[in-house]
Specification:
2 copies of one chain form a homodimer. Chain A is of the alpha/beta class. In chain A, about 50% of the residues lie in helices and about 15% in strands. The first copy, chain A, has a 7-stranded parallel sheet, sandwiched between helices. A two-stranded antiparallel sheet of chain A has the order 3-4. In chain A, helix 9 (about 195-210) links the parallel strand 8 (about 185-190) and strand 9 (about 220). In chain A, helix 1 packs across helix 2 (about 15-25), helix 2 runs antiparallel to helix 6 and helix 6 (about 120-135) packs parallel to helix 7. Chains A and B meet through helix 3, strand 3, helix 7, helix 8 and helix 9 of A and helix 3, strand 3, helix 7, helix 8 and helix 9 of B.
């Protein structure tokens, strides 16, 4: 473990990968690892990128990596992908191009599946970010499909949140529906060479007018990620937002992140402890009793909690 | 409470609405209500409907309600909508038309927001379904946007799962990405009068060939919900699936649902109990200590659990 920690702190890619695998499996060693690593976190900037499927987020991230390498930044990427039993894991499809960067010594890319994290996706991705942070990466990108609640929660942990849209991606109500408008620090209209980019821009600005009257509205930028257009301006804008953000706002966001992760960690620990003490409860038998209506889930939950309280 | 239970069991819409509000607010009375109601559940058929935004799920559900009313079914609908602070709640946009049905005495429609359920979306929607089930509705429809993990979990609780797609809704990889292919009992290609419907059908069938070799492949149906085309065939197909399903499969699915809900209920109860006992812990102070690196989330979780164990 000491060796793993030492290697992670040195930025060793194999060690980082091993650390994230421990996190993903929610292994018993995870907690020990995280305790060792935590003191070295807090220096990275976390950039969250979200948007509906098909908006070209991966291509955008791919181009951002290029631009950030040019600026000599050390970069960590967590790409959260919905998983499917058909493919047996996270889908690499449009990740393949991005992965070419992973041979670069200053770039670490990890694809994480949304499913199957025992402690929840937010905890797993939050801990993966701690590891990347401690490893000396100064710029962390988290990419998720921004339609589901879990995925939005993950992106919300970032210092700067980018919401990616495309021209004519349906009427405004669909954007509203995504429930992500209000968390954006920057809007990116990707594929801005397609017809309707101006209309989409006007729609976003109109909505911002309604929603955020007294605040400074987030900028709306246009990119054509496949051509690399607008990427440098996006990076500059991110840097500007970070540099000019009031200390107070920055601290508040970080504390919100800590608070959220603490709750997730606590929640998972409590459930795990309870399940340990509950090992003599026959869960299947409980389900059978509920199924044939000789009991109900609430009474059984009461009984389990009572028996727990007696044991501790 | 006795009065509320009695009215719910009689199918009184105002009482059902009040019951679901208790569930949504995760009020202290919820548990009492659910214990009273649970013995009367288990008779409804639950139909889950999911798909990406813009596939016309709401219009489809609207038409299904029409068709089910004609068959004298009693219908309950839970429509799960991503919420947005811009609108201050669930978005009603394309719900407005559906709501016209809610004046019908045999139809109950409720829109639930994905966010802000203290015990989680799955628990809240599962409990709302218990209430509708006990109220005598024989057909329950649950509609969600099937891209997020939480939303998929909700739909997975159904007896029959319908995945809605539209022609040319992007290349196959996007469908894969949704991670919902493998849970479908029926595929519906809505807007089937648009170009590419046949191609989409072929793509789905090709994928099913890869994924489900030894099982009976789910049917692929075409609808034009705006015109009401294909709706009756869809309803018949649902009925057929339920009628011809092996008893064993049916019981297994129901037990899976019970098992999932029991875990959610237990998880929420545990966390709530813990939080009660933990009231003297200053959560903000913990966050501050983590922020300035004098402690870490894992050590603090340890301390909270230790102090809990001492108290019980």
């Amino acid at each position: 473990m000491k060796d793993l920690v030492r290697k992670i702190l040195k930025g060793d890619s194999a060690a980082i990968a091993k650390g994230i695998s421990l996190v993903e499996n929610n292994a018993d060693e995870t907690q020990m690892l995280m305790k060792e690593i935590f003191p070295y976190t807090g220096d990275s900037t976390i950039i969250g990128i979200t948007g509906a499927p098909g908006t070209g987020k991966s291509t955008l991230v791919d181009q951002m990596i290029d631009a950030l390498i040019e600026k000599n930044r050390k970069i960590g990427i967590i790409a959260v992908d919905p998983s499917s039993p058909f493919t047996g894991g996270a889908i690499l499809g449009d990740r393949i191009r991005m992965m070419r960067h992973s041979v670069h010594p200053d770039v670490f890319i990890r694809s994480m599946a949304t499913r199957g994290h025992l402690g929840g996706l937010a905890k797993a991705s939050g801990e993966a970010l701690f590891i990347l942070d401690a490893s000396g990466k100064d710029c962390l990108l988290v990419e998720t499909v921004g339609v589901g609640q879990d995925e939005i929660e993950v992106v919300k942990l970032a210092d700067v949140i980018i919401v990616v849209l495309i021209p004519g991606s349906g009427d405004e109500i669909q954007i509203f529906k995504a429930g992500i408008m209000e968390i954006a620090d920057i809007f990116v209209i990707n594929k801005a060479d397609s017809p309707g980019a101006e209309k989409t821009e006007r729609q976003i600005k109109a909505m911002l007018d309604i929603g955020k009257k007294d605040e400074t509205a987030p900028p709306v930028l246009k990119t054509v990620a496949t051509e690399g257009h607008g990427i440098n301006r996006l990076i500059e804008r991110i840097d500007t937002i970070i540099s000019f953000r009031e200390e107070e706002t920055h601290v508040e966001r970080r504390k919100k992140r800590i608070s959220y992760l603490l709750r997730e960690i606590l929640n998972e620990r409590l459930f795990r402890e309870a399940m340990k003490s509950v090992q003599d409860v026959d869960f299947d038998e409980c389900v059978d009793r509920i199924y044939d209506h000789t009991s109900d889930p609430y009474t059984i939950a009461d009984q389990i909690i009572d028996s727990l309280a007696k044991k501790v």
